[in-house]
Amino acid sequence: MRLSKSQRPINSGFNAQSTAEEVISGINLSGKTAIVTGGYAGIGLETVKTLTEAGAYVIVPARDLEKAGKNLSGLNNIEIEKLDLMDPQSISNFADRFLSSGRKLDLLINNAGIMWVPLRRDSRGIESQLATNYLGQFHLTAALWESLKNADGARVINVSSYGHQMSPFDFNDPNFEHRTYETLLGYGQSKTASNLFAVALDERAKKFNVRAYAVHPGSVYGTDLGREEPIDLYIQMGTHDADGKIKPEVQAQLKTIPQGAATTIWCATSPELKDIGGVYCENCDIAEIDRGQIEHRYDDPSTIRGVQPYSIDLNLAEKLWILSEEMTGIKFEAE
Q: Is the pTM above the cut of 0.85?
């Protein structure tokens, strides 16, 4: 395996309890332009609020324009645009509109994602979690590459998950055409792919002063990410009681939404990362590599940490890049 020597904590001074507001304190984003996919709910909405309060102008691509308009009402310096990450033409159309404006792009935050969904496929036959959580990121980033390059100091943040630990990327059958579909395997491989994408993108983009990061927000209470999950799975993991209610001792350990957005904001703005990229981050720091030394318990969110070597391996990242170009039909040369 080829792993980055940068994949180790740097003692940032922040932690799991740090909030987005605390992380961005003292940082002025006036004149900066950001795109935050899924920026109208949960930690995405908190990310948008934090960036705009620091002076950034934020474009929020949304599949549900009505919901986006309602949730973002009252915020200044935002723009809502139509985008469906499962529709390749929608991605291209959005990117074309942005590029035609002539604006540089300082921050691309690939925040949108789905989880715990039944087997669905997009128009190409690609499994929905892979299409939304990863290939949509790949296509969108490729389509916006020129505006990122022109910013001279842009950052790309892929909001990933500890869920990458549930599955490596299956290069033989990524679309569950020959193996039995299990929703958490699909989710896990999509997040592993997102991590690998950050590694490969950073390797190519750093010569243009563009850096890339993957982020685990933490175990966050109050988002709607798991809205389609059968309650039996929560009970099985030990987080909920037999009546389907979250256990008070578990809820007390979960992050708030402002805490959940903090690592995204840290990766997007921290001067400590000026010369570091291609890393997986959590709790407002670079994560520790999980070589089996971390004991994980779903009923103790503080143990849900660490990054699997298979999801940050440069060799696998390069292999996935080639496959992603084939699956999307997008040639992303990052030159």
A: yes
